[in-house]
Amino acid sequence: MEWGLRSAEELTAALRAGEVTSVELTDEAIARIERDDGVINAVCVPDFDRALDAARGADRARARGGDRPLLGVPVTVKESYDIAGLPTTWGMPQYAHYLPAEDAVQVSRLKAAGAVVLGKTNVPLGLQDIQSFNEIYGTTNNPWDHGRTPGGSSGGSAAALASGFGALSLGSDLAGSLRTPAHFCGVYAHKPTLGLAATRGMVAPPAPALPVDLDLAVVGPMARTARDLTLLLDVMAGPDPLTLGVAHTVALPPARHGRLADFRVLVLDEHPLLPTGSAVRAGVHRVADALVDGGARVAWHTALLPDLAEAATLYTQLLFSGSVARFPVEAYEQLRARAAGLSADDRSLDAARLRAMVFSHRDWIEVNTRRELHRHGWRQVFAAFDVVVCPITPTPAFGHDHTPHPLERRIDIDGVGYPYFDQLVWAGLATLAGLPATAIPAGRSPTGLPVGVQLIGPMFEDRTPLRLAELLEQTIGGFQAPA
């Protein structure tokens, strides 16, 4: 029996029943990586010897009657997480040999739960792309079409899951970095509520691993089933023990509903600043039809929704003002000169990006104040609805584009080109307000590529979109292995 594409839940049940050992699962996962990863290039830092040691330890623990949530289950971890003894580079050549001294807090939690870490998965340079390639580890290919990207920045993790390289993976999300790769590769991911899961040790080298409160970024679970997302989120959730002095778990509220028919859902498929491609629109409608057929109350419009155009601009400003904070002075001055040359009438997202790169603190405070108004608007939305369904990006996975300057790239939407980073408008919707969002498979494009959608939920009510993801998986199906 092959175990490579089974869920973590199924593997845990088989391990508990004595149907398989962790060493057998780990051996099979390693063999699968060695056989198939040459063309995918998802697992950029293998750690097979220590994985087998951990698997043997898991089997010994189980033989003594031990049991933990992920005891003996093979998993992968995004390269950007510190793992003692393995390089953490974020794809930056100057840190190719940087070795952190200790595990990231989430890696520690994985290991404490009994997981077997097979290795680390590939990322883009500095985690700042919607693809996953860098000079150290090369390019990760989409398992569905090797000429296309698996997404970024958790693209290696999504490609690994779609290929059967471990049952779970740790990812992170600032600009759709969990959700976009899941959408492109046909797997599941969950962007938790901002601050729900500790991020210490998911930090660019050589910065120290500190318990910093991040402005937009989160760490989160990736899997091949919705239930596995919940399983891993329960391991990850909770503040950093360094901030409390003691370990602490979070008791999230239960899902608002257990049945599809009880959900109140707002569906969005149009954005004022960017068209939705036909393949993605069809995926959104497929989910909406399943909700209606299941008896859910579905609406396509509400006056309660915060302005989507302003949300995209605010998100763009917050994202790019942070991304250049450590740029050299010379580069900053060049950006300032370019921004000063913009027309006052230019309200495009490209212009917003450039102006944000040279924000003053006063500018940032103004944008942050507007963000708080949007957060309050979302509270009103979620008084009337339980979940919002919308795209993750406007297209399925696109072809590799390694044009050196990302701002010069274009994204093709049904034959028309748009600025590359404009495709982040949908991902930014949840990120701006710090909301939880679950990425789920929603079928295939006419050319056979995976298409996903996101289920956005109320702040700290992560179990609500996760529960709807489970119900939709039962209704429209979930992960399917690449042909």
Q: At the third CATH level, what is the topology name of the largest domain?
A: Amidase signature (AS) enzymes
Low confidence ranges:
none
Order of helices and strands: HHEHEHEEEHEHEEHHEHEHHHHEEEHEEH
From the N-terminal CA to the C-terminal CA, the straight-line distance is 19 Å
* CATH-level-2 architecture of the largest domain: Alpha-Beta Complex
Structural class: alpha/beta
- How many E strands? 15
> CATH homologous superfamily name of the largest domain?
Amidase signature (AS) domain
* Backbone shape: globular
Biggest beta sheet summary: 11 strands, mixed
Any overview of this molecule?
- This protein has 483 residues and is an alpha/beta fold.
- It has helices at 8-17, 22-40, 48-63, 105-112, 155-163, 179-185, 226-236, 241-244, 278-293, 308-323, 329-340, 349-356, 361-384, 425-433, 463-476, and strands at residues 43-46, 74-78, 116-121, 133-134, 138-139, 168-173, 188-191, 218-223, 264-267, 297-299, 387-390, 410-413, 416-419, 437-444, 450-456.
- 53% of the residues are buried.
- The strands form three sheets. It has an eleven-stranded mixed beta sheet with strand order 1-3-2-6-8-7-14-15-11-9-10, sandwiched between helices.
